[in-house]
């Protein structure tokens, strides 16, 4: 509840106005049976009861206008709260540390931004509605007591019965709704992952298995949803029946009391009108409480997003001293889990301002972790990273790097959107130069919409997509180009285009590649060999071939993968 209140607090003024309007609307509603009683009482006097009828019509009109205003206000507020929750989730995602996001299924994160805020919608309106309804309910009871305390006694019995059922069933509705949403989150996670890997799923003939897993989550959601709906149906039925029974009892009891002369007919009618009015708040309170349960569960899940650790955006930018090394790592250690093993251990490494450094090492040696450290996706547990000789911690320095990921390096949108992703103000000339650098000019020109071709619409090959990603990275020569090479085989043209582009970059800036191809190591000015999170050796290809066993074995493996001579290319 406190979490939900957190979302409502900024709107307390609107909520208060909504509450006041709600109470005024209820007051108008409450006065109508009394006006009706007055009309009935004046029936014997002869003539048309003009004044009481006018009062009654006035009350109806005022009540309607107030209720309409209140409805509009609350509906707007509910939409606004959903919008704000979505905005806050989305902003939080992009401010969060990479590890905090990659540790959770993407589909689940998407559910947090799409369906959970929608549940806050009704909960927000329910809070006001609940207060007005409870107050309206109590006020109706008071007025009924004024009319006839005996009849009220039997009404209260029905109210107590309904109350007891609600107290028993409502918590389990909340739990079931929470479980249903959790299953929907799981469904989203598995579905997203499976669609992403749809080729593998089909090639492995795992369609049935995967859809089975997703359907299992869907049926869990169904089961919990059904449970919640059934419980809600019970609550509603009991509330309705309770009130219906009360009406019958009161009608009988009331008629008897009228007979005995203890009650006026007009009071009995007014009392019955109140009883009918009581049904409104009673059922609405039931509805409000069930909606609130769902809203509170959603708010609690949304709160977990607020707890995602964010990146530290503070810290001084590096000053303009320009030592020979653009990047330096001093005894840098990092691990992914606080009590886990070191992913890299006391790495000492210097990246010169110009030239091409290739990083090689067996799987799990820490190559990706090294890039993640440099880009501050991962924070070191000890040691220092220096840019231009100055320790850096701010993400602002990312503007000085360009990074080409190994997998999914393109973002949704057109080719132009992708090329301009890092520099939205890049000119058409710059785009053309970058495309030329990766030898994509003709390919893109041949597309019907050219640069404006949506990437989803084109079947660019894996190699071409890699080249678009590289073109994006070299739009404005970055100081440090970090390139995680694709492990997949590339066609000769792509390989040559990439190689030439990297070579050109290394003449004006630093290029660091995680090398998966023989041509890359042959082309590099220096090579760093990582093993089990440590720098094992550094040197040129020729030096390392002479001195390092592991390097010889790695190169041999690369040579088998890409048959090329073992001589440097330049
Ligand atoms: N997100 C993560 N959570 C926990 N441990 C991780 C994570 N990413 C990497 N590791 C661990 O850190 C170590 C270094 O991994 P890293 O991915 O940096 O190696 P790599 O050299 O890039 O391997 P590969 O060539 O297979 O991509 C490995 O032991 C790996 O299991």
TrEMBL record:
A Pfam family matched by this chain, by name? ABC_membrane
Superkingdom = Bacteria
Signal peptide positions on this chain: none
Keyword field:
ATP-binding, Membrane, Nucleotide-binding, Transmembrane, Transmembrane helix
| Transmembrane spans | 52-71, 123-144, 150-170, 235-256
Report the GO molecular function annotations. Answer: ABC-type oligopeptide transporter activity; ATP binding; ATP hydrolysis activity
Protein name as it appears in the record = ATP-binding cassette subfamily B protein
Give every ABC transporter domain span. 327-557
Annotated GO CC locations: plasma membrane
Mode of membrane association: Multi-pass membrane protein
Instruction: Indicate where this protein is primarily found.
Output: membrane
- Localized where? Cell membrane
């Amino acid at each position: 509840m406190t979490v939900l209140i957190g979302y409502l607090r900024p709107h307390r003024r609107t909520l208060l106005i909504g509450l006041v309007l709600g109470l005024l609307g209820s007051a108008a509603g409450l006065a109508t049976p009394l006006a009706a009683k007055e009309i009935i009482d004046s029936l014997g006097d002869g003539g048309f009861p003009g004044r009481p009828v006018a009062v009654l019509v006035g009350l109806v009109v005022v009540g309607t206008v107030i209720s309409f205003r209140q409805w509009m206000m609350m509906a707007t507020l509910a939409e606004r709260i959903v919008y704000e929750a979505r905005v806050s989730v989305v902003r939080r995602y992009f401010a969060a540390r990479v590890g905090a996001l990659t540790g959770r299924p993407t589909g689940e994160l998407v559910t947090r931004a799409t369906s959970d805020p929608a549940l806050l919608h009704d909960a927000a309106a329910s809070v006001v509605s609940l207060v007005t309804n409870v107050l309206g309910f109590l006020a109706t009871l008071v007025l009924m007591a004024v009319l006839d305390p005996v009849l009220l006694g039997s009404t209260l019995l029905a109210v107590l019965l309904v109350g007891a059922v609600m107290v028993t069933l409502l918590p389990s509705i909340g739990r079931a709704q929470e479980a249903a949403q959790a299953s929907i989150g799981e469904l989203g996670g598995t579905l997203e992952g499976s669609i992403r890997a749809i080729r593998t799923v089909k090639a492995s003939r795992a369609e049935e298995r995967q859809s089975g897993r997703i359907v299992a989550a869907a049926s869990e959601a169904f089961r919990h949803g059904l449970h919640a709906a059934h419980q809600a149906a019970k609550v509603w039925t009991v509330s309705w029946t309770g009130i219906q029974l009360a009406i019958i009892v009161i009608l009988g009891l009331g008629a008897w009391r009228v007979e005995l002369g203890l009650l006026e007919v007009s009071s009995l009618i007014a009392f019955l009108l109140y009883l009918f009015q009581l049904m409104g708040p009673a059922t609405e309170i039931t509805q409000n409480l069930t909606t609130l349960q769902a809203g509170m569960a959603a708010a609690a899940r949304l709160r977990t997003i607020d707890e995602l650790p964010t990146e530290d955006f503070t810290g001084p930018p590096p000053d303009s001293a320009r030592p020979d090394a653009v990047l330096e790592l001093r005894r840098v250690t990092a691990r992914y889990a606080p009590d886990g093993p070191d992913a890299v251990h006391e790495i000492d490494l210097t990246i010169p301002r110009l030239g091409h450094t290739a990083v090689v090492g067996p799987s799990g040696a820490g190559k990706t972790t090294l890039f993640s450290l440099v880009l501050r996706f991962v924070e070191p547990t000890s040691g220092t990273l220096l840019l231009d000789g100055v320790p850096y911690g701010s993400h602002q320095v990312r503007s000085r790097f360009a990074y080409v990921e190994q997998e999914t390096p393109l973002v949704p949108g057109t080719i132009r959107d992708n090329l301009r992703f890092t520099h939205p103000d890049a000119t058409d000339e710059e785009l053309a130069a970058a495309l030329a650098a990766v030898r994509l000019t003709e390919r893109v020109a041949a597309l019907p919409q050219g640069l404006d071709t949506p990437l989803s619409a084109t079947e660019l090959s894996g190699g071409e997509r890699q080249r678009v990603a590289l073109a994006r990275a070299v739009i404005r020569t970055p100081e440090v180009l970090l390139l995680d090479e694709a492990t997949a085989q590339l066609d000769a043209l792509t390989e040559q285009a990439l190689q030439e582009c990297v070579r050109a970059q290394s003449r004006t800036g630093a290029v660091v590649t995680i090398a998966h191809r023989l041509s890359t190591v042959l082309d590099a000015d220096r090579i760093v060999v990582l093993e089990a999170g440590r720098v094992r050796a550094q040197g040129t290809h020729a030096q390392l071939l002479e001195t390092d066993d592991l390097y010889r074995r790695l190169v041999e493996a690369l040579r088998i993968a890409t048959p090329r001579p073992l001589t440097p290319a330049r």
